[in-house]
Design goal:
The structure holds 2 protein chains of 2 kinds. By secondary structure, chain A is mostly beta strands. Chain A is built from no helices and 12 strands. Helix content of chain A is about 0%, strand content about 55%. In chain A, a hairpin with a 5-residue loop joins strand 7 (about 55-60) and strand 8 (about 65-70). The radius of gyration of chain A is 14 Å and the shape is globular. By secondary structure, chain B is mainly beta. Chain B is built from no helices and 11 strands. Chain B has strands at about 5, 10-15, 20-25, 30-40, 40-50, 55, 65, 75-80, 85-95, 105, 110-115. In chain B, the strands form 2 sheets. In chain B, strands 2, 4, 5, 6, 9, 10 and 11 form a 7-stranded mixed β-sheet that branches. Chain B has a 4-stranded antiparallel β-sheet with strand order 1-3-8-7, with no helix packed on it. In chain B, a hairpin with a 2-residue loop joins strand 5 (about 40-50) and strand 6 (about 55). In chain B, about 40% of the residues are buried. The chains are: A mainly beta, B mainly beta. The interface between A and B is medium-sized, with 23 and 29 residues.
């Protein structure tokens, strides 16, 4: 069965510092991988996704994630965070053969301090 | 603007009462989903529907019911059988459903249910 692990429930960081939010998954088949962001009292928004091709994917607001098949990871990184990046971030996975079910991790709360 | 509208945003309920959460989308998406979010547990799938008049149970369907009479609407009823209904409920939709090969979801803003 698929699963997603986000080891860090909270990540505090100062503004302009780099950050990495970790995501590991387990699956016996090929997968699609996603990062979603949730601002307080709102729904989730897609941040970026890996479907195929280049293992490094980027978002429009400076985040990037790299698919590492050997380590079954899809860590999210940003070289310099802003206060506005404060939110909860969810990693998610679905497999090629069962795309109607998206499995979410437990989330990582990123808190950016001035 | 196209999107998903969930109502009400906040809802209080007494124990033993059923309550229905509304989810409407104008994206012409085929598939719709209901998730429950609890602190520290991420999102868990309650029900999903790929086409009108058809729906499937997710991982935590007990105590919930849904209907899909129209493509744009997917209401969720939280029944009195749900033992711990206080949570944040999120509705989502997907343009291509099962056939797409990539389940990119669009989410509503959520409904927060509190049982008193």
């Amino acid at each position: 069965a698929q699963s997603v692990t986000q080891l860090d429930s909270q990540v505090p960081v100062f503004e302009e510092a780099p950050v990495e939010l970790r995501c590991n998954y387990s699956s016996s088949v090929s997968v699609y991988l996603f990062w979603y962001v949730q601002y307080p009292n709102q729904g989730l928004q897609l941040l970026l996704k890996y479907l195929s091709g280049s293992t490094l994917v980027e978002s429009i607001n400076g985040f990037e994630a790299e698919f590492n098949k050997s380590q079954t990871s899809f860590h999210l990184r940003k070289p310099s965070v802003h206060i506005s990046d404060t939110a909860e971030y969810f990693c998610a996975v679905s497999d090629w053969g069962n795309t109607d079910k998206l499995i979410f991790g437990t989330g990582t709360r990123l808190q950016v301090f001035p | 603007d196209g999107g998903i509208t969930q109502s009400p945003k906040y809802l209080f309920r007494k124990e033993g009462q059923n309550v229905t959460l509304s989810c409407e989308q104008n994206l012409n998406h085929d598939a719709m989903y209901w998730y429950r979010q609890d602190p520290g547990q991420g999102l868990r799938l309650i029900y999903y529907s790929q086409i009108v008049n058809d729906f499937q149970k997710g991982d935590i369907a007990e105590g919930y019911s849904v209907s899909r009479e129209k493509k744009e609407s997917f209401p969720l009823t939280v029944t009195s059988a749900q033992k711990n209904p206080t949570a944040f409920y999120l509705c989502a939709s997907n343009q291509q459903g099962v056939k797409s090969g990539a389940n990119v979801l669009t989410f509503g803003a959520g409904s927060r249910l509190t049982v008193l």
